[in-house]
Amino acid sequence: MKPRPLTIRAWHYSVGTVMFVAASLIVPCKGVGQTRQYVVTELSRDDAPGVPCKLNNLGEMAGRAGSGLNGELRATVWNRSNFKAKHIGALLGGDYSSASDVNDVGEVVGVSNTGSAIVPFLWTGKGGPSRIPLLPGDSCGQAIAINKSGHVVGYSSGSEGTRAFLWGRKLGVLELGILPGGSYSTARDVNDANEIVGTSGSSNGERAVLWTKAGDVCDLGTLPADWASEAVAINNRGEVVGCSKGPRGTRAFIWSKEGGMQELGILPGGDSSRAMDINDSGEVVGSSASGTAELAFIWTKQGGIADLNSPASAALGFVFIEAHAINARGQIIVMGRSAHDSMMNSAMSSEHNEVCAPAPPSSFLLTPAKTP
After folding, report:
1. Is residue 282 in some structural domain?
2. Mind spelling out the 3-state secondary structure of the chain?
3. Residue 132 domain-assigned?
4. Which residues contact 272 (CB under 8 A, 6 or more apart)?
5. Which of 92, 147, 320, 348 has the fewest beta carbons closer than 10 A?
6. How many domains would you assign to the chain?
7. Are 61 and 35 in contact (CB under 8 A)?
8. Is residue 130 part of a domain?
9. How far apart are CA 277 and CA 285, in angstroms?
10. What gap in Å lies between CA 282 and CA 38, rounded to an integer?
11. How far is CA 217 from CA 78, 141, 176, 227, 294, in A?
């Protein structure tokens, strides 16, 4: 899809596309400025609001969107070429589903109700979703991530509490360990080497953990003086991101075997930050917040933390508040607001002569622009 100028009319179509130079991402690198340029595609629609959660390295996205006349939420995948949405559906007896991840083969995992419980599912691209088994004796759970081999991680819950699991067609469902003194765990991501990250309770509080290929559970610790941490993503280099919590509030971190846990920082004027994803190049995305605002960021080893908003994007009516996924191509899924949201609110406010509630966040895909 070729970029086109932003017009009021453009936002009434399913996709509106513009290009901006992210001037705020000009960061010094050995004396040489770096400029990032993105094509911005709005993915939300008035008639079928959608929330993409993750994207694979090909640019296919997975999440949830309204389906049918009654707008019931269904797990959804978005095509990488034309962003057309395809609803996956729900498990038998269910009326709700949501996708949480998609691998490069196009396999999707998520959660669906069955009329009596919320359970994990796998969708392979044909037919409807199929149920992923829970740990023995459990009644509900969720599939959160899937790698290129089709191995799935998430959590399973029942009378024994919440426990992280790994599932594969040949593996079956396996319980992942819990740190000493803990009573629960949740797996959040898995890389292609079957290294898994998430959180576990422990005698020292909640901790970010890494489950190794050998099956060991490793406490990743916290930032200095903090009392809790959680890990949310791992790349194929074994680098882990998440957040650490303590007397200074919440801070985003990156962890590696060589360097341990390091703080990523916060944007100017902010007081907290959360890392939400990392790609194989080590680029991290997330959100930095203050008491009055929340802004999406990207972090790189060369440039540090930088705002994904810029004067150029603000002039076009965009405010990006949270970046929650990035792939190997540098494409980023962000939540935010557009001029379209503001105009819709203003029109409704004038029509009814009352102040309307803020419009729900829109979803955008930022794609690095090709340089000449």
Report:
1. no
2. CCCCCCCCHHHHCCCEEEEEEEEEEEEEECCEEEEEEEEEEECCCCCCCEEEEEECCCCCEEEEEEECCCCEEEEEEECCCCCCEEEEECCCCCCCEEEEEECCCCCEEEEEECCCCEEEEEECCCCCCEECCCCCCCCEEEEEEECCCCCEEEEEEECCEEEEEEEECCCEEEECCCCCCCCCEEEEEECCCCCEEEEECCCCCCEEEEECCCCCEEECCCCCCCCEEEEEEECCCCCEEEEEEECCEEEEEEEECCCEEEECCCCCCCCEEEEEEECCCCCEEEEEECCCCEEEEEEECCCEEEECCCHHHHHCCCEEEEEEEECCCCCEEEEEECHHHHHHHHHHHHHHCCCCCCCCCEEEEEEECCCC
3. yes
4. 249, 250, 251, 266, 288, 289, 290
5. 92
6. 1
7. no
8. yes
9. 6
10. 19
11. 35, 21, 8, 19, 33
Q: Cα separations (Å) of 173 from 117, 164, 166? A: 18, 10, 6
Q: Which of 49, 47, 52 is nearest to 62 (CA)?
A: 52
pTM score = 0.87
Q: How far apart are CA 17 and CA 1, in angstroms?
A: 8
pLDDT by residue (tens digit) across 186-233?
A: 999 999 999 999 999 999 999 999 999 988 999 999 999 999 999 999
Average per-residue pLDDT for the chain: 85
- CA–CA gap between residue 151 and residue 153 (Å, rounded): 7
Sheet-wide strand order for 97-102: 97-102, 108-113, 118-123, 130-131
Whichever domain contains 82, its CATH number is 2.120.10.30
Give burial (CB, 10 Å; 0-12/13-18/19+) of 295: buried
HSE-up (13 A, CA, CB side) for residue 346? 6
* Residue span of the structural domain in which 147 resides: 46-175
Q: Does the pLDDT value for residue 28 go beyond 50?
A: no
Looking at the domain assignment, is residue 62 inside a domain? yes
Min mean pLDDT across 18-32, 67-81, 301-315 is at 18-32
